[in-house]
Amino acid sequence: MPLTFQLDPPVDGALRDGVLALWADVTNAGGAVGFVPPVTPEDIRPEWVRHLTALSEGRDRLLVGRDEHGAVAATVFIAFNTHRLMRHWVWLHTVMVHPAHQGKGYGRELMAAAEKAVGGFDSIEAIRLGCRGGLGLERFYAACGYREVGRVPGAIRVADGDDRDDILMLLPLG
After folding, report:
1. 4-7 and 60-66 as β-strands: parallel, antiparallel, unpaired?
2. How many CB atoms lie within 10 A of CB 9?
3. Kind plus residue range of the DSSP H or E element containing 27
4. Cα–Cα 20 to 30 A to 4, which of 22, 69, 132, 155?
5. Per-residue confidence at 102, pLDDT binned at 50, 70, 90?
C-alpha cells in the first residue's frame, strides 16, 4: 500500500507525537538522522522545536508520508537557503522512513514526493542533501537520481573512534 504524502500538514499534537516517535524509532534502529541510539522522543523534542521555529518562519517546509492507518511513516524537512547567492536550491534534512516500512519502496516514494514538491517551488533549480557515510546511503540516493558532489572524510563523529564521512549529494531539477 503506497504512502499518502502531504506538504505542510497542520502541526498539532498528533503530528508532533508521530514525528517524534518516528524519529526515535529510526534512530534506535540505526538510522542516520542526527542522533545515535538510544534515544527517546523527549531527547529529540528540542530539535523538533527548532524545526517548528523554522517552519513558522517560512525557512523550512515539512513533507509527511502517512501509512494506510494514517500514522506518520515518513518525513523530510525541506530547508530554504537564506543566503542571497544560494536561493536557487534547497536542502533536504532528516529523511526518514519508519523501520517497519523499510524495504517496501517507501524511501523512493518519499524522495520522489520531495522532488515533486520542490519542483513546484518558484526559482528552485536543485536539491542538496548530506548523508552519513558507512551505511550505504549514498547508493540509495544515487538510485533516486542524486549524484555525489562532495565528501568530507571523518566529519561526523558518532562515537569515540567512529568517525564517518559527510557526503554531499545533489539532484538538479528540470
Report:
1. antiparallel
2. 17
3. helix 13-28
4. 132
5. very high
**Band of residue 164 on the pLDDT scale cut at 50, 70, 90:** very high
Question: Torsion angle of alpha carbons 81, 87, 89, 90, nearest 10°?
Answer: 20
Quick one: CA torsion of 112, 81, 157, 134, rounded to 10 degrees?
Answer: 30
For residue 83, give the DSSP letter: S
Give the integer Cα–Cα distance in Å for 66 and 64: 6
CA nearest to 173, candidates 126, 123, 114, 109: 126
98: Cα within 13 Å, side-chain hemisphere: 16
Listing DSSP states for 107-125 in one string gives HHHHHHHHHHHHHTSTT--
Cell numbers for 9, please give them: 500538514
Task: Tell me how crowded residue 106 is: count the other CB atoms within 10 A of its CB.
Answer: 20
Q: What is the pLDDT of residue 1?
A: 87
pLDDT value for 174:
86
